[in-house]
Design brief:
alpha+beta; 10% strand; 4 strands; NADH Oxidase; 277 residues
């Protein structure tokens, strides 16, 4: 019988005794087996089921119970087509039966303050962070709920590359911003488990310590490439950096972040009424 230790090995590519005596079942097994899906069956997601998932999503923790998150269900065909056209390299947006946009919503609490005749005394950068974290927690709860009933999910962070257009399309008012898009549907395939960085890189005790990072990254690259080697045609920025013989995760991500992206976010947030000081 498969154990949680087996699932941990699948996730990190490293042997462990943790969870060896725990069967691979239940919520922990579902979490450890998480995978994103980008191919969907055409079958619809019932409205009642979507309501259940949304209820589960908003059962997530919220900073000080302020509940600064929201979701837009994009049902209008023309709005869907507009969003799809912004990201043509992601055909799964068009294929997913359901497309959502998760929001950070700092507007609601400001309105509550006004309704109750109180000043809003936290008009600074933390307003953005609190709303973003609340929305992220709701996002993760939604994923857990969707996967529990066999649905597939794919968050779309590239929405923030087009944040002004998406905000205008969805008529987002001041102090509300899109965190990410989200594809939801019944998976057309099994998907695959993405190998993650080893816990010893991610978890620290008493102090932050990345003194062994170079060796850990080299080992991670090797394990990940052994499972799935990035083909030459998917190497990034070949014209600038050349075709690498050893193109692993770290080379791919270093190339990805070498180019500025979303430099408009601070201006966008200020235009949405946020103060970032």
């Amino acid at each position: 019988m498969k154990s949680l230790a087996d699932l941990i090995e699948d996730r990190f590519g490293l042997k462990t005794g943790a969870g060896a005596d725990m069967p691979a079942e239940g919520e922990l097994a579902n979490i450890l087996s998480h995978r994103s899906h980008r191919r969907f069956k055409p079958d619809p997601v019932a409205d009642d089921l979507l309501e259940v998932l949304l209820s589960a999503a908003f059962s997530a923790p919220a900073k000080s119970d302020l509940q600064q998150s929201g979701i837009v269900i994009v049902r209008d065909p023309e709005k869907r087509r507009t969003i799809e056209a912004l990201m043509p390299e992601m055909p799964w947006i068009a294929e997913a039966p359901v497309f959502l946009v998760f929001l950070g919503d700092n507007r609601r609490i400001r309105r509550v303050s006004e309704l109750r005749g109180k000043p809003f005394g936290n008009d600074h950068l933390d307003s953005v962070l609190n709303a973003a974290v609340d929305a992220g927690l709701v996002l993760m709860n939604f994923i857990r709920a969707a996967e529990a009933v066999g649905l597939g999910c794919c968050p779309i962070s590239v929405v923030r590359n087009h944040i002004e257009t998406v905000s205008e399309l969805l008529e987002l008012p001041d102090h509300v911003f899109p965190l990410c898009g989200f594809c939801l549907g019944w998976p057309a395939g099994a998907g695959h488990v993405s190998l993650r960085l080893p816990p010893r890189v991610l978890v620290h005790t008493d102090r932050y310590d990345d003194s062994g990072l170079e060796a850990e990254i080299d080992g991670y690259d090797a394990r990940r490439s052994a499972r799935y080697r990035i083909p030459d045609e998917k190497q990034r920025l070949v014209g600038e950096y050349g075709l690498a013989q050893d193109y692993g995760w770290s080379e791919d991500k270093a190339r990805q972040v070498s180019k500025p992206e979303r430099t408009q976010l601070a201006k966008y947030l200020r235009d949405q009424g946020f103060k970032l000081e």
